[in-house]
Amino acid sequence: MIYTVTFNPSLDYVVRMKHFETGAINRAEQETIYPGGKGINVALVLGNLHIPARILGFTAGFTGQEIVRLCKENGGDCDFITLDQGNSRINLKISAADETAVNGMGPDIPEAKLQLLWEKIQTLKAGDTLVLAGSIPAVLPGDMYEDIMKRLQGRQIRVVVDATGDLLRNVIAYHPFLIKPNQFELGELFSVILHTDEEIITCGKRLQSMGARNVLVSLGEAGALLIGEDGQVYRRAAPQGKMVNSVGAGDSMVAGFLAGYESSGGNLEEALKLGLCAGSATAFQEWLATEQEIRALYEAL
Ligand SMILES: Nc1ncnc2c1ncn2[C@@H]1O[C@H](COP(=O)(O)OP(=O)(O)OP(=O)(O)O)[C@@H](O)[C@H]1O
Ligand SMILES: O=P(O)(O)OC[C@@]1(O)O[C@H](CO)[C@@H](O)[C@@H]1O
């Protein structure tokens, strides 16, 4: 069974306009509200691919209720913990000539509620996969994912981490099965800006030598690079298509990778291929891609 954890879910308020100008009143030409947060996105795309995934995390207030409702409406298997105070955040996504986002801070999570999450995670069994994805509310310590991984050591649970900065850096020593930084986030870990495949591979291999098993580096429209635990480096260009909205493309890639890995009995090339197609299929849609959209790219690749 796959479980995803979203500490800081959101309502993604996606607005479209031809031109966006800072310091001015901008008028939306189209607006939609989606349930958001990386773990939620991963689980919904897994669901689209018929892979069962339970959604764990914290929701609060009226926005939290709407996140749960929208997740369920989209087939999500929700097991959220409800916080007694605050509201889940609203993340503004502006799609104009380019994409701009303002992500909220999210509510505080008191110790007693963290304990409830820990109790849920304790029930995972050997062979299960746990996806820790996205940021945590600003008031929580940056070792949150590390703490979870520490407690899960030796239990044969595959842990996937899609996060940035310290949250990601601190888990590497605990042998995550998969990490998925994008090119910028990978460079950020080493305080460098990466330009070439060789530079990306060097940094990816460094993360492997520090403990990560598979390092999947997403490169936007340039595709992805996988530094596999089998010692191979896999490189694939992205499928061609018209970019509509890239929000959730990276999460869809994680979902596709896990689905491809599971359905192929652990073939990394297959996992990368389905991951890439899921990422691109989402980038080519208004929101998260359906199975049909992902399979169409897969057949053509
Ligand atoms: N313009 C694009 N054209 C084709 N594929 C794309 C494009 N943008 C993203 N993708 C696909 O989605 C994958 C993930 O994208 P990206 O590298 O932007 O991840 P990310 O930065 O984690 O994304 P996000 O934070 O928006 O979810 C890429 O590897 C690629 O397969
Ligand atoms: O603030 P975080 O947790 O880093 O990212 C949150 C978020 O931007 O990630 C998803 C796309 O990957 C969106 O649904 C959501 O708004």
Describe this structure in words.
- The protein is α/β, with parallel strands linked by helices.
- The protein has one domain: 3-Layer(aba) Sandwich (UDP-N-acetylmuramoyl-L-alanine:D-glutamate ligase), CATH 3.40.1190.20.
- The chain is 37% helix and 23% strand.
- It is built from 10 helices and 13 strands.
- The strands form 2 sheets. The chain has a 9-stranded mixed sheet, with helices on both faces. Strands 3-2-6-7 form a 4-stranded mixed sheet.
- Helix 5 links the parallel strand 9 and strand 10.
- Helix 1 packs across helix 8.
- The longest helix is centred in the C-terminal third of the chain and has 16 residues.
- The two termini are 29 Å apart.
- The mean pLDDT is 96.
- It binds adenosine-5'-triphosphate and 1-O-phosphono-beta-D-fructofuranose (F1X).
- The site of adenosine-5'-triphosphate has 21 residues, from helix 8 and helix 9.
Proportion of residues in helical segments: 25-40%
CATH architecture: 3-Layer(aba) Sandwich
What is the CA-atom radius of gyration, in angstroms? 18 Å
Major sheet strand order: 5-4-1-8-9-10-11-12-13
Biggest sheet statistics: 9 strands, mixed
Question: What string, H for helix and E for strand, traces the elements in order?
Answer: EEEHEHEEEHEHEHEHHEEEHHH
Number of helices: 10
Q: Give the CA-based shape.
A: globular
CATH topology-level name: UDP-N-acetylmuramoyl-L-alanine:D-glutamate ligase
The residue ranges in which pLDDT falls below 50 over 5 or more consecutive positions are: none
- Kindly give the count of domains: 1
CATH superfamily: Ribokinase
Please state the average pLDDT score.
96
- CATH top-level class: Alpha Beta
